[in-house]
Amino acid sequence: MPEILIATLPSAGHAEPLRTVAADLVGRGNDVTVVTGAAHPGRQTEELRTALDERHHDAVIVDHGVTGISPLLGAGLPPVLCYLPAPVMPTSLRDIGALVDRLIVPTVPSFEYPHSDLPAGVRFVGVVRPRPPDGFVAPPWWGELDGTRPVVHVAQSSVDDRDLSQLVEPTLTALADSDVTVVVSTGGRDVGALGIPVPANAIVADHLPHDLLLPKVDVLVTDGDYTTVQLALAAGVPVVVAGRTGYRAEIAARVARSGAGINLQTGTPSPAEVAAAVHRIRSEAGFLRNARTMEAAFARRDGVAEIAALVDEVIGDRARPYVT
C-alpha cells in the first residue's frame, strides 16, 4: 500500500482542496498522512522532517504555501508534488518548479498565458472540485434560486473577508435596486459585521458550498480568490474580479484575457463600477459564451483523478532503475 504525506496550510482555501485529494487517495487504497496546523508556524521544516523520519513515505504532496519543505528538497526525499493554486509566474517556476518532481496547477491551459519555457514537470489538471458537504441543510431561501430571477453571488476570500467594505458592501449597494437576487458569502465572517443594511433583494450567509451554489449563479463578483474563480469558470459562470494586489491582479488579468469576465483593476471598487460591470456581463452575450467555453474545457478534466495518476507516475518513475 503506497504511503503518501500531504502538507498544507490550515486555512480553508489551502486545506480543502488537498483534503479532497487525500480522501480520494485513501479511497484508491493509499495510506495518507496529512500535516497541517497553525500552532507552530515557524516550525514547518522541523515538523515535516519529523513526519518524514517517523515512517516511510512513497510520495509527498505539498501546498505551495508550505515553504518549510524547501530546505528538505534534495537527495533522500521521496518524490515531491507541489500543489500550486495560483497563476503560473516566472518566479514560481524558478523557485518551485525546478526543485520538485511535479508542479500541479489546478486549472486548464486555456486559462493561463502561453508559456514556451514551462519546466517538464508542470501539469495542468483542471479544477479540484470540493467534496459534497457533510450534512448540508439547504436554508429556507434556497428555493428562491430557481432561475426565475438572475442571481449574482459576491464572495470575499478568507484572506480579505475581515473588511467587508472592500467588495461585499459596494456590491450590495450597487445592485440594491436591480432585478436580481444577490447572494453574499462572507467567508466565515460574522454576518453582523456588515456596515450597511442588507437590501431587500439580498441574502447574506457566513459560508455557502460553492459546488452547490454556483450552478444557480449568473454572475460571480469576487476579490480574485484562485479556487473560487476556477470553480465559477468550471460552472460556466462569468466573473467580475476586484483584485489589484499580489496574485489577485494576475488572476483578474487572466479572467479578462479569457473573455469570461471583467477586470475592475482595483481591489476597492465603487458601487457604480460594480453595477456597470454586472450590467455589461448580463447584457453582452460574449461573456457567457466564453464562460461556457471555459466550462467545456474544465469538463474534459478530472483534477482529483489526474492528481492520483501523477502520484502513481512519480512513484513509478522513482522505482525505475537509472539507465545510462
UniProtKB/TrEMBL annotation:
Name recorded for this polypeptide: Glycosyl transferase
Keywords: Transferase
Superkingdom: Bacteria
Pfam families: EryCIII-like_C (PF06722)
GO MF annotation: an example: glycosyltransferase activity
Annotated InterPro entries: EryCIII-like_C, Glycosyltransferase_28
Domain Erythromycin biosynthesis protein CIII-like C-terminal: 171-309
